[in-house]
Please model this.
Amino acid sequence: MPELGAFLAMGGYGAYVWSAYAITGLILGLLVVASLRARRSMRANLDEAEQASPRRRAR
Amino acid sequence: MTFVRAVVERDLKLYMRGVVDLIGVWMFFGIAIAMLPLSIGPDPDILSRIAPGAAWAIALLASMLSLERVFAPDQLDGSLDLLLLHAPSAHVLVLAKGFAHWLVTGLPFVVLAPVAAIALGMELRGVLPLAGALLIGTPALSLIGTVGAALTAPLRRGGILAALIVLPQTIPVLIFGTAAVSETLMGRDSGAYFSVLGAFTLAALALAPYAGNAALRAVRS
Amino acid sequence: MAKALHRLANPARFLRIASPLLPWIAAGAAVCMGLGLWFGLVESPPDYQQGDAARIMYVHVPAAWNALAGYAGLAIASAIALVWRHPLALVAARCIAPIGACFTVIAIATGSIWGHPMWGTWWVWDARLTSVVVLLFLYLGYIALLHAFDEQETGERAATVLALIGAVNLPVIKFSVDWWNTLHQPASILRFGGPSIDPAMLLPLMLMAGGFTLLFAYLVIIRMQTELARRRVMALRRTALAMSPASDA
Model:
């Protein structure tokens, strides 16, 4: 696997390149996961609140 | 005009009443200057090189110390309502508040500039440029600070928050204030830097009343 | 009553339009970033000066662009909120802020990592990095002020004013920092992605920039959906409380 090794080495800059991409991926990934989770739990809250409330606003 | 005078006199009296606050600003300046050689080392070369920037940075931080006292006490005891009621407009009140703040936190450093210059081993021909730059630039700091104080007026401990939101906005003043002094010391023509600094203060004078008015409306309705 | 309906209508219309778009935006972001990664890491040649380290550009520059564009969006939304009192604009502004702050952090971190092989040190106060740090402070100040008040609306109004002050001041700050940097020229300065850039590097850069922008939009919409749902929950709870027999006593 010399090709893969060369690719990972990035001409000697491997540690820099991969850590930069890893940090970017980590932050963006966490942001997406946190946002989706918050939306899911808030939607569950909304369902609960809508069921609990007397149906005044039947649209 | 009489309203501005009344507000300034009232604010000064209030600042005086909190003697600790008033003396505190001066003492902060002095102690911070004294801390500098203790942390950086007494080497006169290094100290004199960083002196203009250090004096400006300390003046900036010191002017942040008392932002909590600009609007928050008046908001808390309801006198801000009365002030706004009697003010020709909220803009005038913001200007008066900024001026009072500058008298307490800006002006002292203009007066203390020679002390800072000597303590930090600055050449004596730097005293006048330092005092001049502080005189021209610190009003902008107080005006920007007043807007920050207005934005945090109803908060119980809004001082730190006010400083956090104000400090980034003061970067241009800090950069050109320091440059005006250090370029003069290096024997270069620094008139342009003083002009830019003056332009910042004039711009703050023109814009801060509107920003302060918007800020007061935003947090007080 | 009509006014209340009007206030409800706009967020509802926003949800009706934005929600079906969301999967497409997500797909677009994934495709752009996938292709961008392929071209950026594999297909494009190493920079003749910086070697493979220049590949950091493909995440650093799009993050920095989006951080800046995000603040522009924050300022525009704040202006709309202040002038037309559009409720949706306030929601948009408060949702943009944390995302923009995260993109700013990415720009700073990758810039620092890129700087180490190029400058030999993790941090240089170069004009661009300094400006991005200031941008982070502006974002954090906005977020701090937004959450400082007991009443959400007060915080939103205060933060709106702050965002506009920052938007007016940002060009002045940028100019000052650039000028300050020429005054204290560092010994060795390497320009990030100058104007003359290899076309083979431009393609992945543009793909990644597009992908980052779409991801930004995706995140903003998700957070706006969350915030709108939260407001609806609060409104429902308030009416439920007002109608409950206990409140009559």
